[in-house]
Design brief:
The chain is α+β, with helices and mostly antiparallel strands. It has two domains: about 60 residues, no CATH class; about 150 residues, Photosynthetic Reaction Center, Chain H, domain 2, CATH 3.90.50.10. It is built from two helices and eleven strands, in the order αβββββββββββα. Strands 5, 6, 7, 8, 9, 10 and 11 form a seven-stranded mixed β-sheet that branches.
C-alpha cells in the first residue's frame, strides 16, 4: 500500500499550469469586452465607415450604471439606435491618409478640432460628496476666501494675447470640494463689442497686481466665449465648451501660432 501521496499519480503541476493558461485566456477576452464600453464602435480613419462590433467575444455586454443624487442612469455601451447629440466638427482633412491633420472651416472657435476639441459631457453640474454643485461663484461658499497673502483678481483688468484690454474680473468661481479658483468671471461690458460676462479658466490666467493676463485668446474674442445658462452653477457640458473655446486660441488665435518655431 502506497503512503504519503496526496494526489496519487496525477500531475498537479501540469493541471495548475493548464488551469492558469485557461484562466489567462478567459481574462484576456473579458478585458477586451469590458474596454469596449466607451468610444465604440470605431470608424475607419479614411472613409468614416463604422467598423463591426467584432463578434460576441469582443463585444461588451450591456451594463447600466446608477448615477448618484438621483441623476438618472447611464447605459454602456450605447445601443446602435441611440442617436445622441453628435459633436459638430467643422473642419476638413489636409491630406487623404489616416491620421492626417484637420484644418478648421470658418470660425475656428466653432470648429471643434485640435485644442478646441470637446466631448458632449453630461448636461448637469459636477457634484461634491454632499450632492451640491461643485463649482459655484465664491459668494455662494462663505467659508472660502482669497488668501490675504495672494492677489485678489476681482476688480483687476484682463488682457488678451494681443495686449488689449478684454474686460474686468467681476467674480470668482471656486471649487467648493477642493477650495481652489476654477474660473474668472470677466465683465466685457466696457469693451467695444462686449457687454456680457464670460468665464475664463483660471488655469490659463496669470494674475499680477496690475492685471490678469490670459494669453489664450485675443481681447476681442472674449465677448463670444460661452457662459453657463444657469448663473449659479456650471454643467459638465458647459465646462467642456468653455475650456475648448479658450484652448482653441493657443493654436488658432493668431497666424503666428499655426506653424512650428523651427
Amino acid at each position: 500500500m502506497r503512503q504519503g501521496y496526496i494526489v496519487g499519480t496525477v500531475d498537479a503541476a501540469q493541471l495548475a499550469l493548464i488551469a492558469f493558461v485557461l484562466f489567462f485566456i478567459a481574462l484576456v477576452f473579458w478585458l477586451r469586452r469590458e474596454d469596449r464600453r466607451e468610444g465604440y464602435p470605431l470608424e475607419d480613419a479614411l472613409t468614416g465607415r463604422v467598423d463591426s462590433n467584432g463578434g460576441p467575444l469582443s463585444t461588451a455586454s450591456v451594463k447600466t450604471f446608477v448615477l448618484p443624487f438621483g441623476m438618472g442612469t447611464v447605459v454602456v455601451p450605447l445601443p446602435a439606435s441611440d442617436n445622441r447629440e453628435p459633436v459638430d466638427i467643422r473642419a476638413e482633412r489636409r491630406e487623404n491618409f489616416g491620421g492626417a491633420p484637420y484644418s478648421p472651416i470658418g470660425d475656428v472657435f466653432a470648429a471643434g478640432v485640435g485644442p478646441g476639441a470637446y466631448a458632449n459631457r453630461a448636461r448637469f453640474a459636477d457634484r461634491d460628496a454632499h450632492g451640491l454643485p461643485r463649482i459655484v461663484p465664491i459668494g455662494a461658499v462663505p467659508q472660502i476666501s482669497v488668501a490675504s497673502a495672494s492677489t485678489d483678481p476681482r476688480g483687476l483688468p484682463v488682457y488678451g494675447a494681443d495686449g488689449a484690454r478684454a474686460g474686468t474680473v467681476a467674480d470668482l468661481w471656486v471649487d467648493r470640494a477642493e477650495h481652489v479658483i476654477r474660473y474668472l468671471a470677466v465683465d466685457t461690458g466696457h469693451v467695444e463689442g462686449g457687454g456680457r460676462t464670460v468665464l475664463a479658466p483660471m488655469a490659463m490666467a496669470v494674475v499680477r497686481r496690475e492685471g490678469v493676463i490670459i494669453s489664450a485668446i485675443n481681447a476681442a474674442d472674449f465677448a463670444n466665449a460661452p457662459f453657463p445658462e444657469n448663473p449659479g452653477e456650471i454643467t459638465r457640458y458647459e465646462e467642456e465648451r468653455i475650456v475648448a473655446y479658450f484652448g482653441t486660441g493657443y493654436l488658432y488665435a493668431n497666424a503666428d501660432r499655426l506653424e512650428p518655431l523651427l
